[in-house]
Amino acid sequence: MRDRLIVGLDLPTLKEAEKAVRELEGAVSFYKIGYQLAFAGGLDFARELASGGTKVFLDMKLLDIDNTVAKGVENIVKMGMTMLTLHAYPKTMRAAVEAARGSELCLLGVTVLTSMDEQDVIDAGYEYDPHTLVLRRSEQALHAGMGGIVCSAEEAEAVRRIVGPDLAVVTPGIRPSGTDHGDQKRVVTPAQAIRNGSSHLVVGRPIVAAPDRRAAAEAILAEMQSA
Q: What residues are annotated to the active site?
């Protein structure tokens, strides 16, 4: 399960991220770096982790004109990243897949953010409810040749039926039983996420904000193992 738990380094400074990685050494082998840390020196840190054999999920949620996305992906391939997110728009996904062709970079299509519920999706102008939109975008990602999907673990079982056994189904919004949901609205426990068909679980605050980060990670790994 160690390779299936991705710890989100959602921390404000590089110093704190480095401390978290030291504390989790031996228990965790996969980290997510998103906007917060990326804009605090996290891209160089991502390269450093990758060069040392640690898996890195670069959570950039790319969305732009095709050429800009393609050129960005080409450079991210050179960084040695394991996973990269982009919004699951068909043209964007096709451009990224072509740019990453021949590399080991796993491209993930972000379907609907786990902080969004039905009203949020309506307010954003979509005609579909979150579940329907997730499934539609999963089909589009499969046809575009993507490496996987990012969705809520609530939708993982239905997504798995669409994308088959080989694509990654990466699920954020994971909260151990009894913990605060924070700003997440579509949340699932680690064990339920595994049972639903998630290939990887992204866990940030329940680990990095815990008094004992290693113990928190090990407890989540144990819960995943029990599924």
A: 61
